[in-house]
């Protein structure tokens, strides 16, 4: 909430101080300076007890004029001006205090502050005073007769409204932040799945490259077998068989590269699971802040989120299955490569060929056991 105008008391003091700037009485008085006569009314003179208070509570402001009157018609008083300062969510209610003197003549009221005056009219329980507004114009503001308790109640209400406005702004900011998180999480799942599809393409390319190297090795192995069958010297045959073993090592190197790409795939698979978990958690947090949240054109609804998480779990299982198929192919190619090396070594009665590396292990979906994940 924001104050709609300069406080009545503060405006009153601006008016009262006008003469200090050269717009008051005397030879320097401007022809455009305000001239506020006492307001006359037809009713009988007001009867005012010894101590009175007048309250203005409107537009995010509470003003309270309280004075003690004397038999001579003069009075002395205190003005309490409660206004809202700052901006939400950090608005505060500030209360300033000022003293004034006055004169009551029938129904005409004259207020004096540091030697300057302003006039108003007292009619029944209403006190009307002309004050300077923000745009420089002068208009009347009406105070109503009130007690200290009524002032306290009005001040408490203003503070409560400010507190509510601050809390609402905090809530709005929290809602906006929570919605933004859900939207980002939702987009992250799509990005994760895109990365996983790219990873699978890379694994298939690795398998193809390993298969090509195996084909080349097979040709070398066939040459060694032909040499051995033709009676070629064993030393020559074993030299060529050593080349076949080298080919097998190259195939094992391909498998090592495949394992590196597989590690990237499993990392992305874990990221998909993490982002799906985060999306679920952030949606729950949003629904606690805004139970009626239903999404909109640019932000996912709870149903959208549920479908995305379920879809991610199902997709992860499928991706893991595809990766395991590639792992099986890669392991088979490596085993075949070392089988070729062993056959070539035997053909020349050479040293026993080296054993192949440990097969690459299968992977599983991190969503295993969750809704939407296949067994």
Structural class: alpha+beta
> How many whole angstroms does the radius of gyration measure?
45 Å
In total, the number of strands is 8
* Spans where pLDDT lies below 50 across 5 or more residues: 1-6, 13-49
Order of helices and strands: HEEEEEEEEHHH
Helix percentage: 40-55%
Mean pLDDT: 82
Proportion of beta-strand residues: 15-25%
Distance between the termini: 57 Å
Q: Helix count?
A: 4
Question: How would you sum up the major sheet?
Answer: 8 strands, antiparallel, barrel
Strand sequence of the main sheet, in spatial order? Answer: 1-2-3-4-5-6-7-8
Broad shape: rod-shaped
Task: Describe the structure in your own words.
This protein is 51% helix and 19% strand. The chain is built from 4 helices and 8 strands, in the order αββββββββααα. It has helices spanning 8-16, 148-229, 234-289, 302-347, and strands at 51-57, 61-69, 74-85, 92-105, 108-113, 116-123, 126-132, 138-145. Strands 1-2-3-4-5-6-7-8 form an 8-stranded antiparallel barrel. Strand 6 and strand 7 form a beta hairpin. Residues 1-6 and 13-49 have low confidence and may be disordered.
Main features:
375 residues, alpha+beta, 8-stranded antiparallel β-barrel, 4 helices, 8 strands, 51% helix, disordered N terminus
Summarize this structure briefly.
With 375 residues, the chain is of the alpha+beta class.
Q: What's the SSE blueprint?
A:
Blueprint (H helix, E strand, L loop, with lengths): L7 H9 L34 E7 L3 E9 L4 E12 L6 E14 L2 E6 L2 E8 L2 E7 L5 E8 L2 H82 L4 H56 L12 H46 L28
Antiparallel strand pairs: 1-2, 1-8, 2-3, 3-4, 4-5, 5-6, 6-7, 7-8
Helix pairs in contact: 2-3, 2-4, 3-4
């Amino acid at each position: 909430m924001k104050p709609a105008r300069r406080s009545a008391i503060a405006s009153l003091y601006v008016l009262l101080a006008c003469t200090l700037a050269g717009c008051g009485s005397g030879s320097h008085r401007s022809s455009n300076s305000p001239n506020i006569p006492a307001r006359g009314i037809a009713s009988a003179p007001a009867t005012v007890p010894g101590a009175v208070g007048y309250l203005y509570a409107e537009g995010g402001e509470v003003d309270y004029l309280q004075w003690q009157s004397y038999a001579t018609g003069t009075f002395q008083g205190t003005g309490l001006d409660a206004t809202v300062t700052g901006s939400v969510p950090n608005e505060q209610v500030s209360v300033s205090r000022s003293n004034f003197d006055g004169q009551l003549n029938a129904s005409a009221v004259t207020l004096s502050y540091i030697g300057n005056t302003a006039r108003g009219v007292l009619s029944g329980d209403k006190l009307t005073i002309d004050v300077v507004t923000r745009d420089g114009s002068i208009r009347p503001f009406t105070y109503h007769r009130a007690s200290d308790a009524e002032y306290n109640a009005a001040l408490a209400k203003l503070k409560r409204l400010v507190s509510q406005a601050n809390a609402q702004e905090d809530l709005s900011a929290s809602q906006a932040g929570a919605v933004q998180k859900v939207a980002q999480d939702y987009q992250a799942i799509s990005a994760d799945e895109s990365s996983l599809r790219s990873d699978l393409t890379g694994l298939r390319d690795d398998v193809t490259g390993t298969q090509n190297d195996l084909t080349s090795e097979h040709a070398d192995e066939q040459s060694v077998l032909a040499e051995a069958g033709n009676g070629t010297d064993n030393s020559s045959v074993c030299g060529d068989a050593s080349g076949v073993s080298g080919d097998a090592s190259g195939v094992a190197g391909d498998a090592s590269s495949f394992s590196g790409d597989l590690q990237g795939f499993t990392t992305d698979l874990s990221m998909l699971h993490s982002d799906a978990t985060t999306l679920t958690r952030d949606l729950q947090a949003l629904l606690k802040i805004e139970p009626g949240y239903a999404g909109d054109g640019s932000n996912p609804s709870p149903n959208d989120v549920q479908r995305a998480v379920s879809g991610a779990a199902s997709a992860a299982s499928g991706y893991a299955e595809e990766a395991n198929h590639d792992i099986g192919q890669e392991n088979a190619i490596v085993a075949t490569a070392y089988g070729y090396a062993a056959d070539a070594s035997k053909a020349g009665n050479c040293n026993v060929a080296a054993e192949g590396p440990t097969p690459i292990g299968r992977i599983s979906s991190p969503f295993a056991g969750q809704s939407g994940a296949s067994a």
